Amino acid sequence: MSRFVMVAAATLVVAGCAEQAPPTSPMSIPIYADGFSGSHKANGSNFGTPMSGDEEVMPAGVVNTSNARGNAIFQLSDDGETVTYKLIASNIENVFMAHIHRAPAGSNGGIVVWLYPSTAPNVQAPLGGGRTDGILAEGTFTRANFVGALAGQSMEQFIADVKAGNLYVNVHTNDGVAPTNTGPGDYPGGEVRGQIEHRGH
């Protein structure tokens, strides 16, 4: 057996005996690198968040029992003017809107960027649309797409809000049958949420 093979075998034995590493975050740089192409830098200005019902701030008396999960992935272009995004959701039904909102964790805030069904404001998908498992939306936005508290602001302000923990992604559901807030697939105020975090420089 060559010295190289012996060293490799010993390394594997040591690695196998080492303590198990804790699971890594679902949002990591390789996801960004695989998710986007072109001139985007894998270790560039990346942002993202996992989303779950636990992060939602629900109306009084409403308990969010959703098992849905999601990820929102964002990457700033090299010129700092355009954000490419991908919104992924699974185990969720009747999504009719998704946005970036402006507020810290634990608080609800107004919409500042529309993500689904498009970046055009005040557009909704049909109610009671059924189950989603996979990519919900993807595209790009610029400062021209900012609404609400960010309307007329710069992309630098958007990035500053991300770094301050003041932006979150929210996915809204509605089965189209009154009353609302009856359970998963019918949380119009938001079923899954996550605060956007800065993931690169």
Structural classification: alpha+beta
Helical content stands at 10-25%
DSSP summary: helix tally: 3
CATH topology: Immunoglobulin-like
The helix/strand order is HHEEEEEEHEEE
CATH architecture heading: Sandwich
Principal-axes shape call: globular
Poorly predicted residue ranges: 1-43
- Compute the number of strand runs: 9
Give the end-to-end Cα distance, rounded to a whole number of Å: 46 Å
**Average pLDDT rating:** 84
Q: What do these coordinates show?
A:
The protein has one domain (27-198): Sandwich (Immunoglobulin-like). Mean pLDDT is 84; it is low at 1-43. The N and C termini lie far apart (46 Å). Strand 4 (95-102) and strand 5 form a beta hairpin. It is 15% helix and 32% strand. It has helices at 3-17, 29-35, 155-163, and strands at residues 46-52, 69-76, 83-93, 95-102, 111-116, 131-141, 167-173, 192-195, 197-198. It is built from 3 helices and 9 strands; from the N terminus they run ααββββββαβββ. It has 201 residues and is of the alpha+beta class. The strands form 2 sheets. The chain has a 5-stranded antiparallel sheet with strand order 6-3-2-1-9, sandwiched between helices.
